[in-house]
Sequence to fold (452 residues):
Amino acid sequence: MTDPAYDYDLFVIGAGSGGVRASRIAAGYGARVAVAEEYRVGGTCVIRGCVPKKLLVYGSHFAEELQDAANYGWTVEKMTFDWPTLRDAVAKDVDRLNAAYTNTLNSNKVEHFLERATITGPNSVKLASGREITAKYILVAVGAWPVMPEIEGVEHCITSNEVFHLESLPRRVVIAGAGYIALEFAGIFNALGSHVTVVNRSETILRGYDAALRDRLLQITMARGIEYKFNCGFERVEKQEDGSLLVFMKGQPDPLHADAVLVATGRRPKTDGLGLENAGIALGTHGEIVVDDGAQTSCPSIFAVGDVTNRVQLTPIAIREGHAFADRVFGGKDTRVSYDCIPSAVFSQPPLASVGLNEAQAREKLGSNVKIFTSDFRPMKNIFGHRPERGLYKLVVDAQTDKVLGVHLIGPDAPEVLQAAAIAVKAGLTKADFDATVALHPSMAEELVLMR
Fold:
């Protein structure tokens, strides 16, 4: 039942994965829905995140695939790479997805405004054009934004937002940070022929992932030519007359020479200037919108989903949260999102993937009642490539119940393998269940059921 007292039943700020899903589902329940998006429909993942990044990963993989081709009998002559061709192909696909997401809104009769919206009260927003709009409910789904250091010369640095639009492939790339974004782009640029240096404030890469996988990735990427500077922080960045950059680091006597400096030190909820104070919406210590398990903020008529809540910054989670919100508020269904056993992947080179507890987390929770099973193997595709790189699969098991608590993989196609394994962990299957499953041979995935 729509409410004639308001212009819309639902007004969504942000047309990313969570906002679009919530809009579509709410409209399907008969709600009058409008969305405001200040940039392009599709959000971070589609426009400037995981989708275009994955396409760059695919493009960079051809470097080693073409090299390996000769060992399989192929003759590849005059092997060259043209960055603008890959860059423009990725941009074209982003345009396609932007149109597809826009069509989703249109086909579900969701009105959309391509301008910024700010909250002016519990049931009202104001568009950049000056138009005031009222809504029974407001959903904030504006995502997060890259964090930039407060250093001299930071204007010469780029983030994951701008990296897709570089005019040319940089010969030397310095990357600040050692999280998933940093290491994914380190792998991309390294494979495409750039010299890559990763600068990290601590000595740990990929905090939160299993230590064995982190160590293996570090060994492999260093062997591939990626350099690391640990326990270092940026001091300043200077632009030279020829357009190159000098990166000065704290405690380091010599600067790094670079043609591009990518800052990938984290993402912060994009709540600045949204007018949240006009509705008394409480924020957390990182600027995130605080919500309950029903996505409701401290203002009863305003909700929030996705990265802006800083719970789990993953696109599939934003989609589930948006869908669950619409089910609860407009569909009469008490749908809740489960945050346990969320699979994740890092599309580094090689990639790694993980679900459930890592070994350290399991031992902290269960003490000595933990069994670890591993398979350290050389992937078949690496044999003809004459690469000594080895894959590592790891199962973390509760020694008392035999339940598989975590699966952690590094090696070719690890994310593709993990998705099925994540179902098993979510379902609470045991190591005996894994052992009873017939191996699919020859494959890397068979290692999951052969560990003894």
Observations:
- The mean pLDDT is 95.
- The first strand starts at residue 8 and ends at 13.
